Amino acid sequence: MENRNKKSQQIASVRKINKSTKRVTVTKLENILYKSFKILDKGFVRVIDYMGDDSSIVQAARVSYGRGTKKLNEDKKLINYLLSHRHSTPFEMNEIKFHIKLPIFVARQWIRHRTANVNEYSARYSILENEFYIPNKQNMQSQTKLNNQGRDKQLDHLETKEYLELINNQANESFEKYKYLLNEDDSGIIRNKNKNGLARELARMVLPLNTYTEWYWKIDLHNLMNFLCLRFDYHAQYEIRVYAEKILEIMKKWVPYTYEAFILHRLENINLSKNGIQYIKNLIHGKENKNTKISRREQDELKEKFGLN
Ligand SMILES: Cc1cc2nc3c(=O)[nH]c(=O)nc-3n(C[C@H](O)[C@H](O)[C@H](O)COP(=O)(O)OP(=O)(O)OC[C@H]3O[C@@H](n4cnc5c(N)ncnc54)[C@H](O)[C@@H]3O)c2cc1C
């Protein structure tokens, strides 16, 4: 609790500082700079810094001397054109840096996005806090039988209660063992003066995957959009998707024109294979799709997307 108050005070004091600059700034993003947005039960996302706005993308695309803004409408059109034609390098000129707190099993998925710069909280140097992700009851679901990946229906009350208790107990017992190995009690006082305690870098081995970690994560706008395409998608695990949802909201504040173009050309577009195109053609022309080479799942997805159910 004391630690949490200290962190809130640090955020409040840094948010009070105002500096003038010749660089482009975005008022909507300035307003939320350093502010932390709660994700899952104990995680958060907050913006630490950023470079550029929509006009910076236009400026880079035109390699211009000024701010790049001819007319707002032209900028908007150009951004749309760049994004829809995969002319990606102008988007790499913008960067954003986040401070993120997330469970280790989410971090393992997140770290696969290799085009970001990451610096993680060191559990060799510091002692981890007693913070574990415990899912909400409605997120306690069974394994889907559809594709071996993902979840199905919500578990009933009794099963949910039993498993949540098990997850909670497991986390608390693991943390107790962690502190035992460190030879410290909860206030950081040595437990047994006749023992040395195990180094932090080894003691952490007994902690489970739902332990929270923190990192600074910096990425350019082009690669951020790739990240969002993959992690905002409904195929992504709920626990990483909720972070992507918040980051997408932040992107809307930061680069509203790019956000609009991104929704239009990347998030809500459809990628069709040759076989997929043939399948849709057959449906439209009332022909049979008996020998289609696409899977049942893909067929259902396409029908749903084109409203052909
Ligand atoms: C729903 C879902 C399920 C997944 N399941 C699994 C799984 O079961 N097992 C698993 O291991 N992973 C899994 N992944 C991770 C996935 O395979 C990718 O590693 C991850 O999404 C990062 O994508 P990326 O490589 O495009 O991103 P980034 O690493 O950010 O790379 C962006 C782009 O840069 C280029 N690039 C970056 N580094 C290189 C490089 N070294 N060489 C060549 N090109 C490079 C590529 O064009 C790449 O697309 C899953 C991801 C999702 C979204």
Describe this structure in words.
By secondary structure, the chain is α+β, with helices and mostly antiparallel strands. Helix content is about 45%, strand content about 15%. It is built from twelve helices and seven strands. The strands form two sheets. A five-stranded antiparallel beta sheet has the order 1-2-3-7-4. A two-stranded antiparallel ribbon has the order 5-6. The chain is flat. The protein starts with a helix and ends with a helix. The relative contact order is 0.14. It binds flavin-adenine dinucleotide (FAD). Flavin-adenine dinucleotide binds next to α8.
Helix content: 40-55%
| Structural class by helix and strand composition | alpha+beta
Shape: flat
Give the H and E element order.
Answer: HHEEHHEHEEEHHEHHHHH
The Rg value, from CA coordinates, equals 24 Å
Number of structural units classed as domains: 3
What average pLDDT do the residues reach? 92
Identify the CATH architecture of the largest domain. 2-Layer Sandwich
Number of strands: 7
CATH class membership of the largest domain: Alpha Beta
